[in-house]
Task: inverse folding
């Protein structure tokens, strides 16, 4: 065989991964191969593979006789919608995609290149975990990856897509990355699988119940996006990338100046109900304000009392955090605080301006919340907002009560502009609760207690159930009509485009983790 032919043959061999039978078995499980996934994600013809001929170095258990070029992971770089990304895609057809020393080295090489060149890293995970035949060498490989994940955090976006098993300590690399997308029914993540769970706790649980996509995107919040199938996961990944910068220094801002800044959105007039206790869907406010059909929600099924996601406003990418009155009245609790805090920190790390829609009755009371650390967890959100130096604008649509008023991007903690709708109520608490406390004596002594409570409720509400006390103090910069919201926000974010805000010099803050 001549030298050219030898190369071409080796290339062909490496493309086959673990061989035709294993590829068929992968397809039978409803899963694509590592290369098919890359092909779906990247722009046609843009993928450049690196380390296709790398082989493992294991000599135990007869491993020296079994070699597959590439050693269970396809790595390289290419473009998605014209933008550079680095990628690794684990190949389950080779030793179940398990992570050997060389497999880890390939991933680390890609991660180092991504960091130096300021481009996102995408990991397509489908692996049986540490290569059991390699022992501690494999564990070391994982640690090398975790270390790079951490150093890259906040410098370049890192996204993990889970497309098969992801077990043991292997889950911690995705967990450190910025976003996790899981595929329903064919992917799972857990620290220990159902067998170990049975042995240790005597619980009988399936892989799906323990760590499937639906559990992690609703109960634990480990997964940010749950995809119906692999194609759906890839499409979600592409969409997500379209909202992210290449790195933390990327200054590309795409503004669509053809949108008239004074455009009114009449539909916003009728969303907040007359009755302050009646729910409404905050997504109607979000969608009524932003560029049409641009809201990309993150963590949709987790902690639904707060809504977070990316959107475009006159073409500018923004991050949105919004209380959701349609779920638990939009109250702040442990999970919603964690969800929003992580999102705020992501946006701040990557210079994505923050827009907050506020309608919050306060923090959720009760033993469950206190025992699960609502104090520490609520403080995460507070800390995240306080620390954020990106342009920050708040619109109070209705309730801004108690500590939650402070936490939800108030002026006091560094927000640049706070707007309120005429329906806003900015107070320590709702009028009824307030009247019951401060007029307790008068109400108890009255002949008609109900009447007395009502009158005191009206008295308190008259003073505080509006945005004007806050506006008189300058805590609210402007009271605006709902239909003016879009144009006010477009102008606000344009004004804040070159904002410079520096934190005091320090090694790093100590967020209440
Ligand atoms: C080496 C592995 C492997 C592994 C799977 N294979 N996992 N080889 N190391 N960790 C191989 C199998 O031997 C098999 O090879 C092929 O991959 C496909 O595996 P199957 O079991 O046939 O596939 P399936 O039935 O789909 O089951 C997949 C699986 C199961 C659920 C992932 O293989 C499994 O439970 N594997 C072990 C998982 C595990 O305990 N990993 C270690 C976790 S601890 P052949 O040649 O027969 O096709 C860990 C520590 C990390 O990862 C710590 C970091 C800090």
Result:
């Amino acid at each position: 065989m001549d030298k050219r032919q030898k190369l071409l043959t080796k290339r062909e061999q490496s493309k086959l991964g673990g061989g035709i039978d294993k590829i068929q078995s992968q397809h039978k499980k409803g899963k694509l191969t590592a290369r098919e996934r890359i092909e779906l994600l990247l722009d046609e013809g843009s993928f450049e593979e690196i380390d296709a001929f790398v082989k493992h170095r294991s000599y135990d258990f007869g491993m020296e006789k079994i070699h597959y070029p590439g050693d269970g992971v396809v790595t390289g770089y290419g473009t998605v919608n014209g933008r550079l990304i680095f990628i690794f895609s684990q190949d389950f057809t080779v030793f179940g995609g398990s992570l050997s020393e060389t497999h880890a080295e390939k991933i680390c090489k890609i991660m180092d290149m991504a960091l130096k060149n300021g481009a996102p890293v995408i990991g397509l995970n489908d692996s049986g975990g540490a290569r059991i035949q390699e022992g501690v060498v494999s564990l070391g490989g994982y640690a090398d990856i975790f270390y790079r994940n951490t150093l890259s955090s906040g410098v370049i976006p890192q996204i993990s897509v889970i497309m098969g098993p992801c077990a043991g300590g292997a889950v911690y690399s995705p967990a450190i990355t910025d976003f996790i997308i899981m595929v329903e029914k064919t992917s799972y993540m857990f620290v220990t699988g159902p067998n170990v769970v049975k042995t240790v706790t005597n619980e009988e649980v399936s892989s799906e119940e323990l760590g499937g996509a639906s559990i992690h995107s609703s109960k634990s919040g480990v997964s940010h996006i749950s995809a119906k199938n692999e194609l759906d996961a890839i499409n979600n990944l592409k969409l997500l990338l379209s909202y992210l910068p290449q790195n933390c220094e990327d200054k590309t801002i795409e503004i669509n100046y053809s949108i008239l800044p004074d455009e009114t959105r009449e539909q916003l007039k009728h969303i907040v109900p007359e009755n302050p206790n009646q729910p409404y869907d905050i997504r109607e406010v979000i969608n009524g304000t932003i560029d049409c059909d641009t809201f990309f929600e993150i963590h949709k099924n987790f902690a639904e009392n707060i809504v977070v996601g990316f959107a475009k406003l006159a073409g500018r990418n923004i991050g949105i955090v919004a209380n959701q009155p349609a779920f638990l009245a939009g109250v702040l609790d442990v999970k919603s605080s964690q969800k929003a805090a992580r999102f705020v920190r992501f946006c701040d790390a990557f210079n994505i301006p923050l827009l907050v829609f506020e309608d919050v009755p306060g923090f959720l009371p009760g033993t469950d919340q206190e025992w699960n650390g609502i104090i520490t967890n609520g403080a995460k959100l507070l800390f995240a907002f306080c620390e954020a130096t990106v342009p920050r604008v708040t619109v109070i649509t209705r309730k801004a009560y108690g500590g939650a008023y402070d936490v939800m991007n108030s002026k006091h903690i560094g927000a640049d502009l706070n707007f309120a709708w005429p329906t806003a109520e900015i107070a320590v608490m709702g009028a009824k609760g307030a009247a019951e406390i401060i007029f307790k004596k008068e109400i108890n002594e009255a002949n008609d207690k109900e009447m007395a409570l009502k009158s005191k409720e009206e008295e308190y509400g008259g003073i505080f159930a509006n945005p004007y006390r806050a506006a008189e103090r300058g805590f609210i910069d402007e009271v605006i009509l709902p239909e003016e919201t879009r144009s006010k926000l477009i102008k606000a974010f344009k004004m804040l485009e070159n904002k410079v805000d520096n934190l005091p010099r320090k090694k790093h803050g100590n967020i209440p983790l």
Q: What stands out?
A: The first strand starts at residue 48 and ends at 50.
